[in-house]
Amino acid sequence: MHGELKIISGSASPQLAEAICEHLGTKPSPVLRERFSDGEIRIEIGENVRGDDVFVIQPTCSPVNYHLMELCLMLDALKRASASRVTAVVPYFGYARQDRKVVPRAPISAKLVADMLSAAGMQRLVTCDLHAGQIQGFFDCPVDNLFAAPVLLEHLRDRDDDFVIISPDAGGVERARAYAKRLGASLAIVDKRRDAPNQAKAMHIIGDVRDKVAVVVDDMIDTAGTMCAAANVIMDNGAKEVMASATHPVLSGPAMQRLEESAFSEVIVTDTIPLNGENCCQKIKVRSVASLLAKAINNVHTESSVSVLFV
C-alpha cells in the first residue's frame, strides 16, 4: 500500500476529476494554478502529500502544449513533495498520432512525451484508448490502457436494431471487431485513400450494410473529414441509418459544422476531452468515463487487478 489516496486535478477537465472523486467518495486536493505575466505556469500543491498515493487527472487536450506542461509541473511538484507514488491519469493522450517516423528527419513525438512525463516524476500511467497500442512500449513504467467500449456500447444496447459495425480504415479493424463481438453485430470496412494530412477520401464499403443500422467506430474524431465521408458512402450503399462512435472528441477546425451537416443521426463520444456546450453539435451524445477511471484508480490504489476492467 502506498499511503492515503489523493486526487489532483489539472485545469484541462476539472469536471471529469470531480465526477471521478464522487465515485471514489473523496474530493480533489487543493492546487494553486496561476500564470505569471510572461505566460509561465505556476503550480503549488495545497496540502501535504508525503507518503501518499497521488493520482493526477489531466487529459492533454487543446491547448495541448499548455496542458502537457501543466501536467509535467504537477508531477514534478509531487515528486519533490515526497509522494509515495505518482500516477498520471491522462484520459486523452496527446501527440499519440506521431508514434513513428513517416518522413526523414522527423521526431517520434509520442516517445518524447512519454520520456518527458517519466522525467517529471510519473511512476504509472492510466489512459483510455491509445491511438496505437504499441505506444505502451514507449514507457518504462506500468501503463493501464483502458477501453471505453463498454461505456459507448451502453447507448447502443438500449436499441433493438440490426447493427453493422464499420471500421473507417484498415487500421481500425481490430477495434471494430471488438465492438461487433460485444454487440453480436456484423462487421464492414470503409476503403479510403488519404490524399493529405487531415483529409481522406472514402471509396467503397467492404461488407454488407444494406437495411442495417451502421455504426462507424474510431478512437477519435478530429476534423471529422474521414467520418463524414464514410457516412455518405455507407448511406449510398443502402444503410437504414448511420451513427458514429468514438472515444475522444478532439473536434478541431470544421468538425462541428461537418458533423451537423453529415448523414449521421447520432455521434456518441466520451468526456475524455471536455466539450464546449455552447458550440456543440446537437447530434453529439456524451457518455462519461468517470466510473471506469474511478474503478481503475481504486484498483491501482488497492493493488487489485486492473485487467478485470477489460472484460
TrEMBL record:
Binds 2 Mg(2+) ions per subunit. Belongs to the ribose-phosphate pyrophosphokinase family. Class I subfamily. This is Ribose-phosphate pyrophosphokinase. It catalyses: D-ribose 5-phosphate + ATP = 5-phospho-alpha-D-ribose 1-diphosphate + AMP + H(+). GO terms for molecular function: ATP binding; kinase activity; magnesium ion binding; ribose phosphate diphosphokinase activity. PROSITE patterns: PRPP_SYNTHASE. Its EC number is 2.7.6.1. It is found in: Cytoplasm. GO terms for cellular component: cytoplasm; ribose phosphate diphosphokinase complex. Mg(2+) binds at H131, D169. Involved in the biosynthesis of the central metabolite phospho-alpha-D-ribosyl-1-pyrophosphate (PRPP) via the transfer of pyrophosphoryl group from ATP to 1-hydroxyl of ribose-5-phosphate (Rib-5-P). The gene is prsA. Its cofactor is Mg(2+). Homohexamer. HAMAP family: RibP_PPkinase_B. The keyword Nucleotide-binding applies. The active site is at K192. It comes from the Bacteria. Transmembrane segments: none annotated. SUPFAM superfamilies: PRTase-like. The keyword Electron transport does not apply. It is an enzyme of class 2 (transferase). NCBIfam families: PRK01259.1, ribP_PPkin. ATP binds at D38, G39, E40, R97, Q98. Keywords: ATP-binding, Cytoplasm, Kinase, Magnesium, Metal-binding, Nucleotide biosynthesis, Nucleotide-binding, Transferase. Pathway: Metabolic intermediate biosynthesis; 5-phospho-alpha-D-ribose 1-diphosphate biosynthesis; 5-phospho-alpha-D-ribose 1-diphosphate from D-ribose 5-phosphate (route I): step 1/1.
